[in-house]
Design a protein that fits this description.
Layout: H1 9-12, H2 37-55, E1 60-61, E2 64-65, E3 67-70, E4 75-78, E5 81-83, H3 88-109, H4 112-117, H5 119-135, H6 138-146, H7 151-177, H8 182-190, H9 196-216, H10 218-224, H11 227-234, E6 241-244, H12 246-249, H13 261-264, H14 274-277, H15 298-310, E7 317-320, H16 322-325, H17 335-356, E8 361-367, E9 374-375, E10 380-391, E11 397-404, E12 410-412, E13 416-419, E14 423-434, E15 442-451, E16 454-466
Antiparallel strand pairs: 1-2, 3-4, 4-5, 6-7, 8-10, 9-10, 10-14, 11-13, 11-15, 12-14, 15-16
Helix pairs in contact: 3-17, 5-7, 5-9, 7-8, 7-9
């Protein structure tokens, strides 16, 4: 007996179920080359970064690379300064300053970092320039990809990818050169005598550069970069963004140059779609603010070139703010900006003071925990300590040890220690004191080392001196 409330599932499910693809297939973006003010500006931001990246490891300061992260020796040489793992708080502080600087720029000027100085953008621009040199303009590249394989197509494709691989290899080798002496690395790679780890990391970063800048391109910005996802949290109506002025441009439509758009009932946008063709992420800026927009201003230069040809005023697509598009005026000095400026000023000042007052010397004293004390035959007390001295200076120094805190305390053994530049050593010493001068079972004892040739190079630390109850 059937229940009338139960529905036969065969009556509900159709005979054919459509397949839903949750992953959109990538459509290749063919960008058009464009010249303009903002693209010249990008040249002055991108090329110095590239030259600095490739050239800095080859510059020598104080007999070593200007920037060298010597991981086996746990030394980080940056522009004449040597940092050790003990200086990690300074690195963390520097990263915080960089993050706040990025936030401040984003709040005031949008994604300028992405459009002008991001490594992904800079290297992708170089790869796209190489592609244009080998395969031609946008229309020529589209036509070439549709053609069957021929000698002409093969040599252009092979030449492009070979140049990409060369740039990627130079990028990967240079990156490894920041962690391994770059001159030794180049010589060893040229003579096939380098170690497996140097080869592995060079190939890894070569492949990463070739893939990200050559093949993935906008996919990195759209789907892999976290900055694109949380940038909207920092935007406000006064943030400077690349926008299309819909009130001026709509309704869109093609027309002859001699036609008055007002009489034809049209806006200034001639619907040429040049702004779409030059966009490296393939978006239409006329659809409003989109997270894929990296603020590169290619669409601004493209639209301005069309406006000049049509005899219209430039700025249909421009850097502006939502408040300005709505007829208001952009507020540059607002509470968020002032707050960022104040915090950055304070943090940079504190960081600069710490760097300027940083003493390239560290002293660590650890008391022997196995024997709290040793009673000597003359009624005195000895404590055993282990000194760890790190000379973070490039020059060798002789350090003299001094004690303070326990009356009459003296070192049984050497009190002068010679250390070479960037050397750390451990010393064991015995400290003797008369039992009668110690009023408590535990007394604070101060250790100080001073460089004989540089009195300002000194370090102080404290420990405890123990005696019987």
């Amino acid at each position: 007996m059937s229940d009338p409330d139960l529905i036969d599932i065969q009556e509900v499910v159709p005979a054919e179920v459509a397949e839903l693809d949750l992953y959109q297939k990538r459509e290749k973006i063919y960008t058009r080359k464009i010249e303009g003010f903002y693209q010249r500006l990008r040249m002055f931001t991108g090329w110095p970064l590239l030259l600095g990246y490739y050239c800095v490891p080859w510059i020598s300061l104080n007999g070593r690379q200007a920037v060298w992260f010597d991981l086996p020796e746990r030394e980080f040489h940056i522009l004449g300064l040597t940092f050790w793992p003990q200086d990690f708080p300074l690195l963390a502080f520097l990263l915080i300053i960089a993050a706040f600087s990025l936030f401040a720029v984003t709040v005031s000027a949008g994604r300028l970092w992405c459009g002008y100085t991001c490594p992904q953008t800079v290297w992708t621009s170089v790869f796209m320039w190489v592609e244009q040199k080998f395969e031609g303009t946008r229309n020529q590249r589209m036509k070439l990809d549709k053609q069957p394989w021929s000698f002409n197509k093969a040599w252009r494709k092979i030449g492009k990818h070979a140049t990409w691989l060369f740039i990627a290899f130079m990028t990967g080798m240079t990156f490894v050169g920041y962690f391994y002496p770059v001159r030794d690395l180049v010589f060893e790679l040229a003579t096939f005598s380098t170690g497996k780890w140097q080869i592995l990391w060079t190939l890894f970063f070569t492949l990463a550069t070739y893939t990200n800048a050559g093949w993935m391109r906008e996919q990195v910005c759209k789907y892999m970069c976290p900055y694109a996802r949380f940038q909207s949290v920092m935007f406000d109506p006064d943030t400077l963004i690349v926008s299309y002025d819909a009130d001026r441009g709509d309704p869109r439509g093609s027309r002859k140059k001699s036609v008055d758009p007002a009489e034809a009932g049209l806006g200034d946008c001639i619907d040429c779609e040049l702004c779409v063709q030059v966009c490296p992420t393939g978006i239409d800026i006329r659809n409003g603010l989109q997270y894929e927009c990296i603020g590169c201003a290619l669409c601004v230069d493209a639209c301005n070139s069309v406006m000049r040809k049509m005899g219209y005023a430039p700025g249909l697509v421009r850097y502006t703010s939502e408040r300005e598009l709505e007829g208001g005026k952009t507020h540059w000095l607002r509470p968020r900006i002032i707050g960022y400026i104040v915090m950055l000023t304070v943090m940079v000042s504190v960081f600069s003071y710490n760097i300027a007052s940083r003493v390239p010397l560290e002293l660590t004293v650890i008391r022997d925990r196995n024997n709290l004390y040793v009673e000597t035959g003359d009624g005195g007390i000895e404590n055993i300590y282990r000194l760890h001295i790190v000379n973070m200076d490039h020059s060798p120094h002789s350090f003299v040890l001094q004690l303070d805190g326990v009356p009459g305390a003296e070192v049984r053994g050497a009190t002068r220690y010679d250390l070479a530049g960037s050397e750390d050593r451990e010393f064991t010493l015995r400290v003797y004191a008369d039992k009668e001068v110690l009023s408590a079972p535990s007394t604070d004892l101060s250790f100080e080392i001073v460089a004989e040739d540089m009195p300002s190079l000194r370090a102080v630390t404290e420990s405890r001196f123990m005696k019987p109850l």
